[in-house]
Amino acid sequence: MARIRTVKPEFWSSEQVISCRPLARLLFIGLWNFCDDGGNHPLSPRTIKALVFPGDDMTSDEVSELLGELEGAQLTRRYTAEGKQYLHVMGWKHQKIEKKNFRHPPFPAALHDESSSDRRPLDAGREGNGTGEDQHNSLGAGVEHPPESVDPTAACQMSLEWKPDPRLLAAFAKRMGLAEALFTHKAIGAFVCHYAASGRFETQLAWVSLLVKWIKRDAATSASVHPFPLRKASEPDFDDTSWAEGLMVKA
Question: Are residues 30 and 64 in the same domain?
Fold first, then answer.
């Protein structure tokens, strides 16, 4: 059952939110309406598209890409329970709701521990029941960056030494349904060489998103190219001109 959620002003200045495209931010807010009171929802791009963008000309793949962008920014996390995949909104804290409704399996406690001082919670809004009662809810993103990971919001110019962050790449590839085996050194190198000469600046998140789109386009192009079939031995060879030998008239 959908619930009323409101957005606090701090949402718009959050670094994690700013790192995402406007449409991804809209999807993030839309998810709050349909998550249960634990901040959880089935991870189904088709269903989420129907709920959040019912009147928009969008495909499930586009919604899946936006979900990957949110996960890459650590605004959401995916998890598996009872054989199904779910997403969890990071930073979703306990809510003061009279009748809580937990419709989906809870996010694993080991991953939901937000007591670390390294996390930066995003106070994104409050929840009301539509009758004027103030039901507080802290909703948003707690982000921690492991030492080996790059800052997804950091902007950089593409260079020949650039490499995608493995965690961001895995999240985007998962959402786009691409096997990680497609991201070979040669494939990534072609992408890097193409953009290195442009002098373009993007966030790490945007570069990984562009890379995934590049690989997906290449995979689709390769699948659509079919070699000409070899001529069977029993078929006539119209390139054979031996039949014309001896037909030339001598002057």
Answer: yes
Q: The sheet that has 127-128: what strands, in order across it?
A: 4-5, 127-128, 134-135
Give the span between the Cα atoms of 1 and 94, in whole angstroms.
18
List of residues 6+ apart from 38 with CB closer than 8 A: 88, 92, 102, 104, 106, 107
Is residue 242 one of the residues assigned to a domain?
no
Q: Which run of H or of E encompasses 207? A: helix 204-224
241 occurs within a structural domain: no
Domain count, the chain: 2
E strands present in 112-184: 127-128, 134-135, 155-157
* CA angle centred on 40, ends 34 and 43, rounded to 5°: 85
Closest residue by Cα to residue 174 from 84, 81, 65: 65
Residue 204: give the domain boundaries. 155-224
pLDDT at residue 52 greater than cutoff 90: yes
Model confidence, pTM: 0.51
Tens of pLDDT, residue by residue over 40-50, are 999 999 999 99
CA dist 197 and 28 (Å) reads 34
